[in-house]
Amino acid sequence: MEYAGDHTALVAKNRELELRCKALQETVRMQGQFADIANVLASVVELPKLTAALLPTLLAATQAKAIAFCLRDERGVFQVLTSQGIEITPVGRQYIQTLAARASERNDIVTTGRTAGEGLSLAHQEASLPVTYAAIPCIYEGASNSVLIFAATELFTIETLSFITALSPNIGLSVNNASSFDTITKTTEALDGERNRLNAVMYNMADGLLVTDTDGVIIRANRALLEMFRYGKERMAGRMASDVFVPELAGLIATCKKSGKREAISLEIELPGDRIAKALATALTQETTLSNERTGGPAIVATGVVIIIRDITREKEVDRMKTDFLSTVSHELRTPLTSVLGFARIIKKKMHDVILPHVKDSNAKIHKNVQQVNDNIDIIVSEGERLTALINDVLDLAKMEAGKIEWKMEPLSVVDVVEHATATLSSLLEQKGLVLQLDRETGLPLVIGDKNRLMQVVINLVSNAIKFTDAGSITCSVARRGAGVVICVQDTGTGIAPADLPLIFDKFKQVGDTLTNKPKGTGLGLPICREIVLRHGGRIWAESKPGKGSSFFFTLPADIPADTSMHTMNIDAFVSHLKHHVTALPESPEGGKKILVVDDELHIRELLRQELESQAYSVHEAKTGIEAVLQAKTVNPDLIILDVMMPGINGFDVAAVLKNDPATSKIPIIIHSVVDDVERGYRIGVDRYLKKPVDTEELLLNINDLLSRGASHKKVFVVDEDESLVKTLSETLRMRGFHVVGLCDGKECIEKAQAEKPDMIIIDRVFSDRHNIIKTLKFEKNLRNIYFVIIGGQAPGVSV
Fold this sequence. Notes:
The protein is α/β, with parallel strands linked by helices and 800 residues long. It is built from 23 helices and 29 strands. The protein folds into six domains: 26-183, Beta-Lactamase (2-Layer Sandwich), CATH 3.30.450.40; 205-311, PAS domain (Beta-Lactamase, 2-Layer Sandwich), CATH 3.30.450; 317-401; 412-556, Histidine kinase-like ATPase, C-terminal domain (Heat Shock Protein 90), CATH 3.30.565; 589-710, 3-Layer(aba) Sandwich (Rossmann fold), CATH 3.40.50; 714-800, Response regulator (Rossmann fold, 3-Layer(aba) Sandwich), CATH 3.40.50. It has a five-stranded antiparallel β-sheet, with helices on both faces. It has a five-stranded antiparallel β-sheet with strand order 9-8-12-11-10, sandwiched between helices. Residues 513-518, 560-570, 583-588 and 793-800 have low confidence and may be disordered.
């Protein structure tokens, strides 16, 4: 019996030992599988490859017959990514995803049993066999990013579940890494695609693209830019843009860097082959940790500059053709207009002076007809003047847009500009019973500008205000704004509708209903104002409310302080002083003066003949330039009225010939032409330049002035090392009828004075002392009668 008991105990112990050995072997096997799985997790990065290697390994390490892998998407919903050993229908997929969601929510294992045939079936198994499922969450940083669903035909052992649970953190980490890698890969691919597209865009751009740092070192230059400057596939990065392309880019880049704003700055540059390009530069900016002292917000600094360069040679040519076309059309229109207006004025004058005094008031019918004729003539004159204004505006705007206007920039007081401009509109104000109020701040800075053009802006804005204001007031104010000046013209007129405000500066655009209330004007006044203001570096805009009036503003930058030390003088007083010393001034010319009229248009010659003969002048005619030169020498006229556009030899060449011939150089010449090239005329030496159609009274006043003082032969030297002052003063004196030579070199002044013997020399005191000019010329025997006007400090002085 003892033996039997011992045998039973021995069998039990052997049984226990076998179980322990089996458990130990299973543990050793699982540890080996754990190492294999860990190796898979460590060696595979891409998620599809990771799941493809992981699932078979897990099946081999457990008693499961099938496995599914569920991944949490960006919405937090678990989706079946892949499976092995199981067939899943849509219903079964929903079951697995629900099971995965429960395990994720609990962050723990969820086991369940399910009868086969309800949407899930194990491969190679009979449909009637029951199936056990275990959902194990793979946790990373406290949350599950994936869930493993195991399926078996028997209950899972604790060892199997423990084994899988131990692996879940590693799986969660690997899944996170694989997902991150996948995201990085997709992002990189997207960035690569975007970069390739961007490179393709930049490479195929028709315009040149240049990117530099703030010092002007090239970061990138596209193919079009290299082709513009006729480079091959050369490496440009690291080189200075101003050295590789054009020096002007250095200033453009420096301006962008200084401004630190994302505003476009443009500049025209030259390209090889006599081509022109427009460079448009913008600063690349970023916020810094520093604070902006003015705004208190983060400071914005420039980190680089991007420049778009476009070849505008063709556009320039088109603009030139457009300007030439408009110029030609304008010229062709001005010539007949001159005749129409001139003869209409003559008829009107004779109606008043000759016909009307002889019309008997008792004959009502005749009186009515005469009055009707008189009114019709007034209409002809009025409409002719309106057509002339339109032609002038069109040509003016075309020249501005083509850059063919020569701007006479000088230091100006904006208050003086406004006062002179508004003074010319007094008659318009009186006609409508309006009063113009001027509000001016004191101590305003000077601006650099073209006085006549800025006056044109003010006159246009104020005349518009008068036109659209029937009652109330008009105010023109000048005030400081930042470093510059703002001018405002405000009225209490009809106002402008909000929809029309953005359109008022468009060419030929007139607001309102032109069918029921056609406004007067060309629609070019405000566009011309905009061009003038933009050329001065300012901006112009309008504010308005219908029925409550409008306000037009424009700004001008102040480039010099109010206490400037530049030469300033009263030009009118100075010219009057010159006239007194250079020539005697009889009150009126002697009768019977001979005037030579040179024009290829018969009607213009006839018009001028009638006007001049009515003033007792003796008129001679020439229809070509050659005839003009011959008659000037044979007739020896007291004055010549000269057209420019003539067959054979043009008026400029005629004037040059006459002014360089001692026999005719002293004859005053008035150019009377449709050609608008005043500068060329005065450079040749003409005494007046009047554009057709000219007012008869203006022409006669100029003729009377020139014949009265005979100043054409009086030569004046303007001498100063300041080229700007010499140019400004010379142009002013030429326009007043003096023959002026501008000089900036002391030695040249002495040599020219000895050779040409001027009547007067206007010279800077310091400049004269430095080169000993006055003392040298005073000892010349034939130069002792020269008048010297000494410019020193703020006013000119005279020495004889």
